[in-house]
Design brief:
CATH superfamily: NAD(P)-binding Rossmann-like Domain
Radius of gyration: 17 Å
Order of helices and strands: EHEHEHEHHEHHEHHHE
Number of domains: 1
CATH class: Alpha Beta
Distance between the termini: 29 Å
CATH architecture: 3-Layer(aba) Sandwich
Number of strands: 7
Length: 255
Amino acid sequence: MDLGLTGKVALVAGGGSGLGRAVARRLAAEGADVAICGRDPGRLAAAAQEIDAAGPGRVWSRALDLTTDGAPEEWVEETVRHAGALHVVVTNGAGPRPGPVDTFTPADYRAALDTAYIPHVALALAALPHLRAAAWGRVLMITSETVRRPIPRYGLSNATRPGLVGFAKSLVHTLGAGDITVNVLAPGYHRTPALERQFGDPDAAVAEIAKGIPLGRVGDPDQFAAVAAFLASEHAGFVTGTVQLVDGGANEGIP
């Protein structure tokens, strides 16, 4: 199925690794030009080479920290100068460190907002003028299943990430009529380098985590990327303001 992404310009934060890298690779395979950013220059260079090989479009990479004031805006403007337009924005980044809610100070909560909330908002706001100029756009915000299912070991994430859902739904109304959509992707556990770094014995941890997932396994980043690519496509033009869980059925809430 042609997703209608050929010639579109996509910006993928955190594209050097994990879910961001998988999404960038899938968008490139669908024919989009893709810009990625990340903090690790070596990892980013390897990702850019892989993404470039995935499709016919152009690929740009930039090593930067989106938590730095002004960095999201600078990256957006630089990308538009190179590409001439912007159509798809995927906000993504590291989550707050794990731990129960009562093990953190107010300063920790402020820092969590600066890590897992503000960069997403800043990137989306910086992109809006360009999406409006193109009269077509897709904003995808990658958060966590904690926006729907608080997990005790991720207290900071439980407290800070749901705010992105409120921002996204508010943005839908601000954008109003047209062909610019905003959706939140809420992944559960996927086999990524971040998950492997979090646990001392990744294989044992993944096996234990899988016991709590109805499908009996953790997610494949490529399958997550397929969901993101559909939401970025022409076919998803009437899907906006949603929270799309990609968690193997772990969330048992309604809805």
